[in-house]
Amino acid sequence: MTLPLRVDPGRAEATWRDAVPPPSAPPAGLRDWLRVARRGGGAVLVLLAGVFLILPMRGIERLFHGRRRPWTGRLVQMVCRLTLACMGIRRSCRGKPMRGPGAVVANHSSWLDILVLNAAMPVFFVSKSEVAGWPGINILTRVTDTHFVVRDPRLASAQAREFAERVHAGHRLLFFPEGTSTDGQRLLPFKPTLFQGFLDPALPEGLAIQPVSARYEAPRGADPRFYGWWGDMDLGPHLLAVLAARRHGRVTVVLHDPIPVAGLTRKTLASACEDAVRQGLAI
Predict the structure, then answer these.
(1) Between residues 132 and 248, which one has the greater pLDDT?
(2) Is the pLDDT assigned to residue 88 strictly greater than 90?
C-alpha cells in the first residue's frame, strides 16, 4: 500500500507564498485586551475541560471498542463548537457527514480549520510530524487524535499499515490535498499523489471520499484574508488579532456528497474532489 502523504522530498516543506500577508494588528487598547482575555480564557477553559474528559474516556473506550472512537469523537466535536463560540466566531454547516468507510478532504486556510472542521463532523486530521511540537497547536492535535506522518521513505510501509488500520476502525481521516495553507481566498490544485493511498485493495470495500469546503468571511471592514494563516506568518500575533476583533465574521462548512473510489484513478479522484470543494467555495 502506498502511503497517502508520500510526496517529493524537495516539496515536503513547501508553503504558499504568492501573496504578502496582511499585518496582524495587535490589541490596541484596554477593550481589545479585555476581549482577548475573555475569549482566550473561555477557549482555554473549554479545551482544558475537554482534555480532562476525553483522555480518560479514551482509555475506557479502548477497553470496549478497541481503536474505534464511538464516544470521544462526538465529545471532541462539542468541545470545538464551544471553543469557537467562546472566540465569538459564528459557524454554519450544510450537508450531512458521510456514512460507511472513507476519508475526508478539504481546503486549508488557517489553524482555525482544526476547530471548524471538527465542529462540523468527527474527523481525525492527518498532518506532518513537525506539527506535534508547535506550541498551542499541539494541544489541539492531541485532543483531536491527529494522525501524524513522518515523511521518511523508510517508514512508509509501517505508516501505510497504520493508515489502513484507522480506516478499518471507522476513523474519518481528513487530508488537505493542497499540501499547504493559503489566504482562504483561493484553492490550490489538489495533489494526485495523495489519493494513491485510497486505491489500495487492502482498504475496505465501498470506500468513498467526502469533499468539504470551509469558506471564511472576514469581519466587516477587515481584510478579506483576515482568517488566513500561511507562509511565515507567526501564530501568536495572528491569534491575538483574531481574539481582539471587535466583531467577527463567520465560517460556512459545506459537506459535499461522498465520491466512491471504485473505478477512479488518483488523478480523476483528485480532480473530482477539487471540483466539489471549489464549487462550495464559490457559493
Answers:
(1) 248
(2) yes
The DSSP symbol for 105 reads E
Residues 6+ apart with CB under 8 A from 102: 167, 172, 207, 208, 209, 210, 258, 261
Q: How far apart are CA 228 and CA 145, in angstroms?
A: 24
Mean pLDDT across the stretch 35-57?
93
pTM: 0.87
Pairwise CA distance, residues 108 & 187, whole Å: 8
CA distances from 163 to 68, 166, 204, 217 (A): 13, 5, 12, 34
Q: What ranges make up the beta strands (E) of 34-131?
A: 90-94, 102-106, 124-128
User: From CA 278, how far away is CA 283, in angstroms rounded?
Assistant: 9
Read off the amino acid at residue 265: T
Angle between helices 72-87 and 113-120 (to 10 degrees): 130
C-alpha cell at 20: 504578502
DSSP string, 125-176: EEEEGGGGGSTTHHHHHHHTT-EEE---GGGHHHHHHHHHHHHHTT--EEE-
**C-alpha to C-alpha distances, 193 to 7, 84, 222, nearest whole angstrom:** 7, 33, 36
**For range 17-32, the mean pLDDT:** 84
More reliable by pLDDT, 167 or 208: 208
Mean pLDDT (the chain) is: 85
Among residues 141, 225, 133, 130, which one has the least CA distance to residue 184?
225
Residue the block writes with cell 499540501: 179
pLDDT at 84 over 90: yes
Residue with cell 459557524: 91
